[in-house]
Amino acid sequence: MPYSRMTRILAIRHGETAWNVDTRIQGQLDIGLNAVGHRQAERVARHLAEEGLAAVYSSDLQRAHDTARALVRQTAVPLRTDAGLRERRFGVFEGKTFAEIDAEHPELALRWKRREPDFGAPGGETLAEFYTRCVGTAARLAEVHVGQTIALVTHGGVLDCLYRAATRIELNAPRTWQIGNTSINRLLWTADGFTLVGWGDTQHLQNLDESLDEASDGGRAG
Questions:
Q1: Between the N and C ends of the chain, which has fewer C-beta atoms within 10 Å?
Q2: Which of 42, 47, 65, 87 is catalytic?
Q3: CB 187 within 8 Å of CB 194
């Protein structure tokens, strides 16, 4: 299929936060980058400066927006926020560590770890609702930029859903792929859906403090 009928997507996870380090669930709580996260944002921005971006879209949560702002400073392309790129809303889990959730809500924690599509913590989104929201948002934005390259700066859970959409992996399948802070993940979008091009590129972080991967938490902390 000609590239003129595709949208090239660089999907980027935000830089590291203190809550990532603490394995504390951020969800839609507005937590900012830590010092390492700001350095990671500058690195990924410089690395992508020559990618020919037509636009940068970001979650409106601070940790993603500040990562996106670093990219815009390097490229001078428009930055637009979209709440559809927010992390999953985790309700009563937000602000708690994984250990605290296990101790305080053992039955809920078990359903969460099983990745039940119809499960959502009280006050939160179900996994199926979240998947529909973030994949639909990415498709909607891609459709505006057919034949161009865009960046989506977002969260671990959103990236997990995009990977599944591109590889046709079920929502309840265990995650075996990495989602590191400021990792660069390359997708193509057409009217037929998403295709995976490349995943988990963190070459730009060489000689920097290791970016925190959430392979052990399923991208849940945000």
A1: N
A2: 87
A3: yes
Q: What is the pTM of this model?
A: 0.92
- Radius of gyration of the CA atoms of the chain, in A: 16
Adjacency order of strands within the sheet including 7-13: 79-81, 55-58, 149-154, 7-13, 184-190, 193-201
Q: Is 87 a catalytic residue?
A: yes
103 belongs to a structural domain: yes
Distance CA 161, CA 211 (A): 20
| 220 lies in some domain | no
Give the model confidence (pLDDT) of 109-161 as tens digits. Answer: 999 999 999 999 999 999 999 999 999 999 999 999 999 999 999 999 999 99
SS3 state of residue 92? helix
Residue 49 lies in a domain: yes
Active site residue 50: no
